[in-house]
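Quick question about two entries, pasted in order.
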Amino acid sequence: MISITQLIYIKDGQEKVFDQFESIAIPIIKKYNGRLLFRIRPSEKTFIENTIEHPYEIHLVEFDTKQDFDRFMLDEERKKFLHLKNQSIKSSILYQGTKLS
C-alpha cells in the first residue's frame, strides 16, 4: 500500500477551474485501486503552527501499489484535462509514504 499526501496551492481566482479538474480526476482514482481518504480545505484558524504557506487543499489518497499510482498519473482521460490543473494550480507538494502498522 502506498499513501500520497498532497498540499495544493491555487492561483488567485482559479478555484472553479480547480474544482472542474478535480471533478474529473478524483473519480479516476478508483480505476487504479486508489481511494481518496480525505480532501480538506483548511482555514487560517485550523493551523496551530506553521512555517510554510497554508495550502488551499490537502488530499490523502492511498493506492494498493506504486504501479497503480503511476498508472493513475498516466491515465489518458486525466491527461486530457491537465490544462485545467495547470491553469488553476500555482504549486503542489506531494509526499509519498507507506502505512506503518
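Here is the second entry:
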Amino acid sequence: MKNESSLYLKENPILKDFLEYDVKMVKERGFEDQTLTQTFMLFLEECGEMAKAARKTEGIRNDKNSKEYHLDLEIADVFMYLLRICNKRGIDLEKAFRDKEEINKQRTWS
C-alpha cells in the first residue's frame, strides 16, 4: 500500500522553499534521528553515484553490469542531502552562497 504524502513544493520555488520542504520531508519520512555524520556519509555516497552517472553520460569506460544511472536524478539526491546538512547546522545556504561569491569576486582567476 502506498503512503499518502502531505509534501508539496510550490511552482517556481526559491531556495528557502527547498530548505523548508526538506524539514517537512525529514519529519514525514522519519529521518529526524539521523546524525550529521550519517547525513554527510549519505551525501558523499550520492556524490559518488552522481560521478558514476556523469561518467556514463560522458561515455567514460565503466562496469557494463552496473545499473543505469540518471545524472539529473543523482544531482537531485546530492541537492537534497546538501539541504539537509544546511538545515542540521542552521546554515542559510543563500546567504552563504552570496557571501562566498563576494569573496570569489575579489580573487584573480587564471
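Reply: The chain is about 65% helix and 0% strand. Helices lie at 15-29, 36-58, 71-89, 93-105. Hope that helps.
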